[in-house]
């Protein structure tokens, strides 16, 4: 559709952002032939792009403007003043087009926290049917099942007819997929349960968003847009940068959206809306669009030269991210890792041909090896863990009395001492990492150290550090200021250090123990980008965590779903406070973080959001 044709129409619903959530909303709303839906996406339509479709080619997408917004944070005091590169998908499908394909699940308490904070209808049982509605689970063959141990998956908790295809890879098996679950059992973990049961403790192979029939990435553009693109009532315009929502104050004092202003090739257009504008720009772009439209903190807006329409200082606050600390360790030559492909262009070319021609080989298999560790296993020697956690929270609260108006930290503290809840996620990746390249995500897994390497990542599950994202200019092409405030809360660094020491302890158990190379003294060999020896104490571990931490690419919270007086931007119907017809639906609405990779929750939230917009009763909905 031409820009002139798109802008000449008015739409019942305009979806700002054709990403992970936006295309779910567009597909579900356009199921009704009597409504019209227009979607504006800043990136291009790259359906059938080999680098997106390949399940294990995602590293080739990062830091490339045709796929990635290439965002940068401000220097982070908590990570030795480093600038962090934040890859976010600037393409149809958003970050679901460029992520690592890992498909995880929030715990029961993660989502029940949302309900306790004042969001009725957003607990675990409320969202479970929407997880199922969004997915189709494919069970592995008996041969693959015996290798990767998928027995923890309960098919009855999984979807059978949803758009997103989830599976384990039949075309390639890596040695760590077979060894990891056995190692975790030998380290004392109980056999894991399906995370859909509400708790995930232990080590296992996680599902991936890959269609096993085509061996292609299953993401929102492929799953939600492509099958519906011919609908007469669904219009999409790509490479269209939204500049602002056009708002008018109505008689009640609320602002009403009458249209959306956007630019294509530096030429500005305005398209009219009849019913609602639904912002699905993601954690960075959604607060940016609200602020550019005049919804946000009066002081921020005035400084940026934007007229204040709705004064809400909560917009862009509550930024919360998962951190990931990488432990790069040398493995013996007989255990192949991705370095084999990274250093040999001929082999990499052959692997790509195997994928293109036969849908086989290493580019078919996305990362699966993961695990979740509770505090009592991460540090069995910690005496009075509840007292320890409460003391750190109390000290921070005393120094920052206005930091937690919603009362989130007590809920998170309760989770951290719960034996069925994880304080950290472990991710085993078959390639070495050079964390000093943190500013450029595409370079983190490219390094010069000889030999084969794995990286054991130790990731947070629910951080207490909260930062912000704000505009500093009325120019929509200028990136906002991103400050995740990593490790600004001392408890996050403390938990990360304990998780890291625990992860190191796992390498003492077979079968993984025999995989690692050793130095002359029998010690593990750590990547030369690390400047110090492996830590033995909590204080040493804290120092190394601060020096070797990156984002896990799971930011949330900047348009939080909370009561306004508790820091909220939207209510539990996803409506932006102070407006009559603007909603936000994406990860920016998460009021608190959840464990693991978040794309599955974004799909579930968007599915529920679509029902709310349609006016459907969502509590107790039957999943399918």
From TrEMBL:
<dbReference type="GO" id="GO:0016614">
    <property type="term" value="F:oxidoreductase activity, acting on CH-OH group of donors"/>
</dbReference>
<dbReference type="GO" id="GO:0050660">
    <property type="term" value="F:flavin adenine dinucleotide binding"/>
</dbReference>
<dbReference type="Pfam" id="PF05199">
    <property type="entry name" value="GMC_oxred_C"/>
</dbReference>
<dbReference type="Pfam" id="PF00732">
    <property type="entry name" value="GMC_oxred_N"/>
</dbReference>
<feature type="binding site">
    <location>
        <position position="91"/>
    </location>
    <ligand>
        <name>FAD</name>
    </ligand>
</feature>
<comment type="similarity">
    <text>Belongs to the GMC oxidoreductase family.</text>
</comment>
<dbReference type="InterPro" id="IPR000172">
    <property type="entry name" value="GMC_OxRdtase_N"/>
</dbReference>
<keyword id="KW-0285">Flavoprotein</keyword>
<feature type="binding site">
    <location>
        <position position="242"/>
    </location>
    <ligand>
        <name>FAD</name>
    </ligand>
</feature>
<protein>
    <submittedName>
        <fullName>GMC oxidoreductase</fullName>
    </submittedName>
</protein>
<dbReference type="InterPro" id="IPR036188">
    <property type="entry name" value="FAD/NAD-bd_sf"/>
</dbReference>
<feature type="domain" description="Glucose-methanol-choline oxidoreductase N-terminal">
    <location>
        <begin position="89"/>
        <end position="112"/>
    </location>
</feature>
<dbReference type="InterPro" id="IPR007867">
    <property type="entry name" value="GMC_OxRtase_C"/>
</dbReference>
<keyword id="KW-0274">FAD</keyword>
<dbReference type="InterPro" id="IPR012132">
    <property type="entry name" value="GMC_OxRdtase"/>
</dbReference>
């Amino acid at each position: 559709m031409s820009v002139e044709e798109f802008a000449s129409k008015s739409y019942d619903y305009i979806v700002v952002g054709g990403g992970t959530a936006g295309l779910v909303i567009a597909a579900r709303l356009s199921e009704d032939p009597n409504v019209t839906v227009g979607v504006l996406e800043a990136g291009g339509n790259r359906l059938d792009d080999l680098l997106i479709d390949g399940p294990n080619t995602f590293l080739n997408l990062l830091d490339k403007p045709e796929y990635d917004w290439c965002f940068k944070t401000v220097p982070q005091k908590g990570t030795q003043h480093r600038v962090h590169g934040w890859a976010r998908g600037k393409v149809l499908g958003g970050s679901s087009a460029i992520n690592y394909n890992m498909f995880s699940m929030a715990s029961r308490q993660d989502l029940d926290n949302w309900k306790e904070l004042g969001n009725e209808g957003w607990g675990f049982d409320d969202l479970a049917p929407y997880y199922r509605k969004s997915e189709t689970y494919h069970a592995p063959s008996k041969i693959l099942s015996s290798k990767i141990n998928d027995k923890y998956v309960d098919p009855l908790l999984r979807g059978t007819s949803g758009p997103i295809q989830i599976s384990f890879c039949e075309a390639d098996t890596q040695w760590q997929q077979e060894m990891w679950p056995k190692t975790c059992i030998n380290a004392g973990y109980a056999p894991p349960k399906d995370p859909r049961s509400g708790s995930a403790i232990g080590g296992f192979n996680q599902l991936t968003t890959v269609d096993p029939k085509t061996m292609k990435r299953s993401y929102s553009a492929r799953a939600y847009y492509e099958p519906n693109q011919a609908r007469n009532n669904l219009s999409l315009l790509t490479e269209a940068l939204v500049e602002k929502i056009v708002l008018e104050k109505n008689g009640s004092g609320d602002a009403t959206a009458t249209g959306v202003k956007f630019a294509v090739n530096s030429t500005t257009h305005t398209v009219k809306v009849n019913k609602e504008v639904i912002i699905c720009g993601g954690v960075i772009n959604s607060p940016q669009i609200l602020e550019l439209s005049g919804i946000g903190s009066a002081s921020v807006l005035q400084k940026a030269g934007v007229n204040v329409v709705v004064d809400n200082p909560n917009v862009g606050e509550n930024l919360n991210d998962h951190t990931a600390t990488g432990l790069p360790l040398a493995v013996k030559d007989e255990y192949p890792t991705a370095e084999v492909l990274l250093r040999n262009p001929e082999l990499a070319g052959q692997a790509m041909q195997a994928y293109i021609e036969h849908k086989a080989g290493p580019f078919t298999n996305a990362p699966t090896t993961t695990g979740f560790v509770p505090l009592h296993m991460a540090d069995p020697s910690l005496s009075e863990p509840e007292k320890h956690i409460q003391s750190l929270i109390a000290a921070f609260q005393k120094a920052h009395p206005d930091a937690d108006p919603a009362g989130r930290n007590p809920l998170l503290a309760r989770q951290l001492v719960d034996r069925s809840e994880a304080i950290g996620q472990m991710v085993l990746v078959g390639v070495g990492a050079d964390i000093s390249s943190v500013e450029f995500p595409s370079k983190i897994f490219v390094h010069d150290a000889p030999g084969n390497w794995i990286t054991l990542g130790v990731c947070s599950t629910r951080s207490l550090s909260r930062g912000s994202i704000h505009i500093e200019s009325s120019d929509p092409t200028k990136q906002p200021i991103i400050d995740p405030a990593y490790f600004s809360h001392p408890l996050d660094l403390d938990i990360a250090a304990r998780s890291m020491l625990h992860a190191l302890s796992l390498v003492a158990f077979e079968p993984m123990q025999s995989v690692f190379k050793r130095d002359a003294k029998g010690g593990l060999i750590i990547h030369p980008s690390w400047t110090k020896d492996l830590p033995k104490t909590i204080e040493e571990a804290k120092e190394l965590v601060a020096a070797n931490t990156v984002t896990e690419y799971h930011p949330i919270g900047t348009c939080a779903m909370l009561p306004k007086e508790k820091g909220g931007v939207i209510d539990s119907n996803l409506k932006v406070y102070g407006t009559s017809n603007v909603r936000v639906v994406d990860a920016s609405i998460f009021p608190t973080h959840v464990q693991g990779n978040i794309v599955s929750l974004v799909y579930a939230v968007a599915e529920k959001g679509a029902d709310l917009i349609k006016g459907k009763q969502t509590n107790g909905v039957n999943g399918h």
